[in-house]
Amino acid sequence: MTVKKRSKPVSVNPLKIGQSLGGILAMQGCYRAMPVVHGSQGCSAFPKALLTRHFREPIAVQTSALQEMDVIFDANRNLEEALNAVLSKHRPDIIGIIGTELTDVAGVDYQSMLKSYKRERNMRGGLAFSVTLPDFRGSLESGFSVTVEAMVDELIQQAGLRGQRNVNSRQITLLPGSYLTPGDVMELKEIVSSFGFEVIALPDISTSLSGHLLTGFSPLTRGGVPLDSMLQSLQSGLTIAFGASMERPARRLHNALGTPYKVFQGTMGLKASDELLNFLHQISGVPVPIRYCWQRENLLDCMLDAHFQFAGVSALAALEPDHLRSVSEWLDELGVEQKALITSYETPAVAEMEREVWVGDLDDAEVLGSGADLWIGSSHGIAGAERIGAAFLAAGFPIWNELGSYMNVSVGYRGAMEWTNKAGNLLMRREAEHRESSIRHR
Amino acid sequence: MEPIRKEEIDDQACGSLAPKSKPCPRPKPGEAAGGCSFDGAQITLLPIMDAAHLVHGPVACAGNSWESRGSLSSGPSLSQYGFATDLSNNDIIFGGEKKLKDSIDYIAGRFAPPAIFVYSTCVTALIGEDMDAVCKEASGRLGIPVVPVNSPGFVGSKNLGNRLAGDALLQYVIGTGEPELEASMGVNLIGEYNIAGEMWDIEKLMNQAGITLLSRITGDARYKEITWAHRAKANMVVCSRALLGLAKQMESKYGIPYFEGSFYGAKETTYSLRQMAFLLNDREMERRVDRLTEREENRLSHDLRPYRKILKGKKAVLYTGGVKSWSVISALKELGIQVVGVGTNKSSDEDVQRIADRVSDDTEYIPEGGASRIIKTVKERKADIMIAGGRNMYVAMKEQIPFVDINQERHKAYAGYEGLLRLAKELVDSMANPIWKLASSPAPWDKEGSYDR
To answer: What PANTHER family is this protein classified in (chain A) (predicted)?
Structure first.
């Protein structure tokens, strides 16, 4: 419908997360990878701290540690040093150089530097690419998808196959968006493979950030999709992208290799799950596995049980664009009034939503969502939710106020059921608290 | 053991006010860890709880960092708001000064803070924004202090940022106000950020001894109390690496003597309280401090007995920055724990000297960051526990090493006598947790010798 913006000179309690963090996150889903942030130390230290706090896992990231004079005279000397150090010490399979607003404003040409670096050192076998992710454009979501796109590009170049390839029609490449948790990616892999497909997720945070006990410290990523699987994914007969932001990398695969693709913009709720399962049933010819038939009934029953809780209730959601769209569709199914939908930046996917969406910050969420019963968003929203007296449901990034949020599932029937129960329980508790306080005050 | 080399000690000198020989070492690309100067400046100033803190730059500098500190507030919470000018492409091309001015006006109008701190970032510094002029103009027009903090990330390390924040306080804040009460001859605490409420434990002790805490710089501070910091009779520098320069300059500018002290461990706490009374030059107060510290130490040693029994002879690797590197050693020693490895990464040369005074000869110094280096020390020295910051927490978990968080994200206060008791309990609970046994035992099907077939 329309995307609006409140006029205000300053961002108060930002919802937006720097793009480069999205890039670092995408790299965590690749095995033995190292993102190198081309910027000052804080450009990698802040995202590292934030990602560590959210996932409760060590996060692989390095920096070119730019200082003032480096930026003015020769920023690429630092990058070269950083690459030398990372390559000789850790031998990563995949390196992603992430340019920041600092290198962007200074006009540093690290793309051609990387090219000559690769040529001079005769780098083969590994994957090295660069992306430009300044923080004054986009947000976490765009940083993630742009990085995946660059990764896919580099894979295609590396493999050198244009048009000619052995298509494996039983293999599907998944492109899960940045808003999906490791638990979500795992669930999606499971759903798709239950129809008899081989599945390669790109990137795959479900095997790197879901909690593992691999000992032997390495500063590189542990887990994630290995490089040979990534290369193998080029033979897939189909790409499935989750989230509109992942359409671009899917289109790259289509343009270069002719791989058809399907984008699921929504991933939450009954209809979205129906759509996914029906699609998989259609293309595989395999009947929907019985456990999903059961889950569908479970979900419907749970929604019936919960509908008393949701009747007449209003919610606000402050999330990244794709996530917002997905959550909004789920709220629609519950009949919850959507008081305010706030997102970090405008994308075509939110612009075409049938609801009013605001690009803004968490202060806008407080103002526009005043009177809402439920606040859906990151841990940054706890204080705001308290101020407007809404129940707080943690979603998106970052979440630090609860354990195991990285294993939360929102996709499929199971995910919709988990969220419905969780939100319903929060509302029930809130109602009980209100009742108690009204008795006390009488 | 790896002895500290002379050059390394020289490198550490950048913590002091005037670098002796060379400036702070350049961070090594590809191996650097830790935050930037912008981060450091924020750490120092964000605990001024009633002020607004506005970040002038693209959104991520604020967006990725707000609400990441464990500095607690006893009242106002405006400093927990994240304010950013959120510069766009266009602002960078045409300049963001207008937006900065409007942002300051907006914040002043809507939140009415006693002061606004404005932080520069790499981008605004690079494009040459005249932040000082905008702040000065706004300050005159709005009638509230608008303090520019010129500490963009790329000027250097986190420590340098602490110092630059101290400079901003000295230049714009300290000396601009007068205390409300006449009998104000108190002590300032410098570089104590009230992580997990530690300041409150310290304040309680000072009150019991009858020592006035004049200005808190900056844990749980209010803006106006810093304006009259120059009226103190003594300064205590709690985190020496960060704000020693501030104390030194206050000494030369206002003639306020300072000392460096700590509140980790009973001995250090007692020393710090005594030193305050000494500098206040009040016999009666000194006697009160003696009585208080004796009473508290006796009570503590009684309460600690069961924990000491368990902790005696245990080995720890301590990896933390600045003052804590040496002061926590004393606390651990009092609990009977041997420190077998200690980080010297962010310590000044004085700090390193103090470490040397407190550890045994075969303690390993870990001069540089890198989780692998810390873990190597833990393994080689067969340490029972690792005490470090949140950044290394999950690395320790992967290696199944018991861990206690000592840095800014922690949730427990370890300062003072009560704090030492809390630390002892935390250490015991952490090492005794059943998870260590469970995590190291294999699944039944992975055990040697399966069922007879």
So the answer is: LIGHT-INDEPENDENT PROTOCHLOROPHYLLIDE REDUCTASE SUBUNIT B
